[in-house]
Design brief:
The complex is a heterodimer of chains A (about 270) and B (about 350). Helices cover about 75% and strands about 0% of the residues of chain A. In chain B, helix 3 packs across helix 4. The chains are: A mainly alpha (about 270), B alpha+beta (about 350).
Chain lengths: ~270, ~350
């Protein structure tokens, strides 16, 4: 007979409660008919969501975050793809140094990164705004993107690329017809996660946005006024749902085909 | 210049300090089934990859059909390769795998369809067009890899241990099939293998390689009957090595003393020098005779059977003698070890079956 381990079960439950309960308060209070986050709940309303829908500053901030997120995720994934390919395919001088250099933003405190960029950007005589935020996000997202892509590319059968060269394709044709379709699930996962990281990022944005607020900056600004709290809760609830879906999608894509179908197409093939 | 189809001129390939291929020169004729044979790490695969264009030589040059291809990238060479692991593209089906290499040849849709259908029937894969790599058996994948390379109608087909991953029965079948296919289509095959039986049974000529050098290049029969050195003799088939010393040359023959057996006149095909102790004699197990009675052969020794192993079509006897230090292996179709009383036996050798080799 298998013995049930109640201690471990209890620990696991406690862990999840601690992790997710506070987060669940956001959607709960976003439907509560009151300006204050306190029990007992006073009544059900969707009015905060309507209010959220009508804020033009919020729309502006959302649009700014999307722009920054799309550019940052595309650029960092592109850089990370080249780097991941180099690290998994070739042995070269300075390999571990360049690996460390790319991973560095992952390890140094974000606030240091933010202050450094701020100082350099201003001393070059540029204005603060979405451009330095985007650059900071590219720096910050690239190590994440590279970790995802290396996991994908390692174990990739490079004789497939040789076969393509052998069959008359040049380097670009090989990349387009063989490598890219096989890396695609990893690339999409990297794009999605980079986008989410950029979308949620606060510290770099705080130092570098100037007057063009991104969405986290906008939320932070609204928190100072008690009567504006409820629509921030509504916004928070929407973001939680949206982020969870993207992260799930990204992980599903990253893991696809890593079991049976080594090349990983994202196409399920029955044996 | 001669009209050899492939000319390999003083090719070397170094990886750091390692000389994977070390100043190798030879020629391959058009329509030949040519094998590169050797143990792993002997440089045979590197040589094949040099021909394919995946590696560039450190020195030397390669000519194919009179054209210098040394510096051409793989996509510009009239060669195609069957990879060891087949390298079937997993994201496209069999049909599109086979069509993959036709895109840049400027063919009409009609011509493409005809070529694909022809090659599918050549490798007997009709009906598998829609399958993906993961839905095929090892043997079928091998056929796809073959079809994908042949559909481009290359001047040379390069095969990198293509049968290594198949089980024995399938491998024997494919050996025969590949050989027939090659004779029918007439394309030059360069075949890399570490399996001497495979190389011998399929090839017109075989180059035996070791440590980046060609040890011997000849027909399979020559390789077996007249190995040029101890490495080839050992690598091709099975043999017994006996200690020997040469004395004086006598016409085509040389006098040699072999272990404690005495002095014999042995044919000196390899111009081995007189009075040398750096030589060995090689005797193939199947050239010897094992019997209960003494024979009138050139050499007849009394021995004791230490062990026998029954292999079906023949039996191997491992025999100890007073004169020879090592255990001697004799193979025979005759199996009845009940008739050897106390495992006593006589082994007989003909002088014609003894070959004299340099140790180095």
């Amino acid at each position: 007979m298998e013995q049930k381990n109640n201690t471990l079960l209890f620990y696991t439950l406690l862990y999840f409660v601690f992790l997710y309960l506070p987060v669940l308060f956001l959607p709960l209070f976003s439907f509560n008919d009151s300006d204050y986050m306190s029990f007992p709940l006073s009544g059900f309303t969707t009015e905060h969501y309507v209010e959220m829908w009508e804020k033009t500053n919020l729309h502006k901030a959302l649009w700014a975050s999307i722009k920054v997120g799309v550019v940052a995720s595309v650029v960092s994934t592109t850089i990370a793809l080249f780097a991941a390919k180099a690290f998994s395919r070739y042995k070269f001088r300075g390999e571990s140094v360049s690996y460390g250099a790319i991973m560095m933003p992952f390890l140094i405190p974000e606030i240091i990164l933010a202050v450094s960029i701020l100082v350099i950007w201003l001393s070059l005589g540029f204005k603060l705004g979405l451009i330095p935020v985007t650059l900071g996000h590219i720096l910050f997202c690239t190590p994440f993107a590279m970790l995802i892509l290396i996991a994908r590319i390692e174990g990739f059968d490079f004789s497939l690329e040789e076969a393509s060269r052998d069959l008359g394709e040049n380097a670009w044709g090989t990349f387009y017809r063989v490598s890219l379709p096989l890396y695609l699930p990893g690339i999409i996962a990297s794009l999605l996660l980079s986008f989410i990281i950029s979308f949620d990022e606060f510290i770099l944005a705080f130092f570098l946005t100037g007057s063009d607020a991104t969405l986290p900056m906008y939320m932070w600004g609204q928190m100072r006024f008690i009567q504006k709290l409820p629509h921030v809760l509504a916004l928070g609830a929407v973001i939680i749902v949206f982020t969870t879906l993207i992260v799930l999608l990204a992980f599903w894509l990253r893991n696809i085909g890593q079991g049976k179908d080594k090349a990983g197409l994202g196409i399920k093939i029955h044996e | 210049m001669n009209n050899s189809f492939i000319q390999i001129n003083q090719i070397s390939k170094h990886f750091g300090d390692v000389k994977a291929v070390d100043n190798v020169s030879f020629e391959i004729q058009e329509g030949e089934f040519f094998s590169l044979l050797g143990p792993s790490g002997c440089g045979k695969t590197t040589l094949l990859r040099l021909l394919a264009g995946f590696e560039y030589p450190t020195s030397g040059n390669l000519l194919l059909d009179g054209i210098d291809i040394t510096a051409l990238p793989p996509d510009k060479r009239p060669t195609n390769m069957v990879f060891q692991n087949y390298a079937i593209f997993p994201h496209i089906n069999v049909q599109r795998n086979i069509q993959f290499g036709l895109r840049k040849l400027g063919l009409t849709n009609e011509e493409i369809r005809k070529r694909v259908n022809d090659v599918l029937s050549l490798v007997k894969l009709e009906g598998y067009e829609e399958r993906f790599s993961s839905q095929l058996s090892g043997g079928q994948r091998q056929r796809v890899a073959l079809a994908r390379a042949l559909v481009r109608q290359p001047k040379v087909l390069l095969l990198d241990e293509p049968l290594g991953a198949l089980d024995k029965k399938l491998r024997d079948e494919m050996q025969l099939e590949l050989r027939t296919l090659q004779k029918n289509i007439g394309i030059t095959f360069v075949f890399v293998t570490h399996d001497q039986q495979e190389a011998i049974s399929m090839s017109d000529r075989v180059a035996v390689m070791s440590e980046g050098k060609i040890q011997q290049l000849s027909t399979p029969n020559e390789l077996y009957k007249n190995p040029h050195n101890i490495f080839v003799s050992d690598f091709i088939g099975e043999t017994n090595f006996l200690k020997a010393e040469t004395k004086s040359q006598d016409g085509e023959y040389i006098n040699a003393s072999i272990e404690k057996l005495g002095e014999f006149k042995i044919k000196n095909n390899l111009n081995i020098s007189e009075n040398s102790s750096d030589v060995v004699c090689s005797v193939r197990p199947e050239t010897m005779m094992i019997d209960k009675e003494k024979s009138d052969w050139d050499i007849c020794l009394e021995g004791k059977i230490k062990q026998t192993s029954y292999l079906g079509e023949m039996t191997k006897f491992y025999i100890e003698t007073k004169e020879i230090e090592k255990i001697i292996t004799v193979s025979s179709q005759y199996f009845d070890n009940q008739s050897f009383k106390n495992n006593d036996c006589f082994i007989s050798i003909n002088l014609d079956d003894i070959s004299l080799l340099n140790k180095k």
